Amino acid sequence: MSSLFVLAGPTAVGKGTVAAFIRDHYPRVWLSVSATTRTPRPGEVDGVHYHFVSQQEFDQMAADGDLLEYAVVHGRASYGTPRRPVLEAISQGRLPLLEIDLQGARQVRERMPDAHFVFLAPPSWDELVHRLIGRGTETAEEQAVRLETARAELAAQAEFDATIVNQDVGVAAAELVDLMERHISAAR
User: Fold this and answer.
1) Topology (CATH level 3) of domain 5-187
2) pTM higher than the cut 0.70
């Protein structure tokens, strides 16, 4: 049984916020750093939040088989998980966590079906809309695209092994880490 955990859910549900909370409060969890072609948001640091790369660099990584999963998200930017660091974390017995989108989670399930998949859900649709609009990082057009995508992503919840509702970031993070630790303890 793989110790790899995959956290996915709809856009604006707070995947990145929960992952950042885990990074800051649970050092025993190894958090994968995805590569992306999108522009950094305010406060994001290259190599910490994402590896910000050009489309040409990203395409080369994909062609070389260096990505465990990758996709174009919201029809705009490419995202992917570098393969080698994930495999190294697993072999070192760490608690590895991927925070990725639904497309990526499906690819990881194909390549690593024994990984554990956790869906991060919003408390309600209205709260999801409020979070997306409230963060103010996308244009109205981008918000509309993301909300359309979110409807389809919410419908995929049944594909996951567990669901955590992100009502409170600290509580959601604690629930996820507890789930990871219980899974690892049971596998020993």
Assistant:
1) Rossmann fold (3.40.50)
2) yes
